[in-house]
Protein: NAD(P)H-dependent oxidoreductase
Amino acid sequence: MTNKLVIILGSVREGRFGPVVGAWLAEQARAHGGFEVEVVDLADVELPLALPAAPPKLAGAEYPRPAGMAALTAALESADAFLVVTPEYNHSYPASLKAAIDWHFTQWTAKPVAFASYGGLAGGRHAVLHLENVLTELHAVTIRDGLVFPNYFHTWQDGQPLDADAPTRAKVVLDQLAWWADALRVAREKAPYPG
Structure:
């Protein structure tokens, strides 16, 4: 069975580099063969920062999300795995990504999440460390291996990373995501997650 992989572009900043990384990752994931791939660009989603009083875990299907968020919610719900593309802003990840995460809860539960980060010298690693903490709280399973692109402004050309090992590293991450997606889908089908 092919797993559905949702690639999330976390930055909505003007002039962002995320769509370049996301397009390359989608190409790698489609070539991998283990996934049906959907790219979700948060720049196309209505993401208010003000949240309803009741948390989404308690409100369930009745959670009052904006109509402009329906496609995002449906994509997260149907996903078997996630690959989050994030820059690093001030040693953390973008507010747009936090808003998208906070408007949801069960959509992340018992599903694997990998990260591709980009930035300056740290390559976005501080952002990923923070995301790992947040998504663990939502009962997602974060993948240890990830893709890190430091100094991306010098290390990419024509939509491709200049590092010849990047496709090999991407395959490792995708192999792990596929393994976890299979294992967790079977587990969710066998019994509801107790969280």
Remarks:
- The first strand starts at residue 3 and ends at 9.
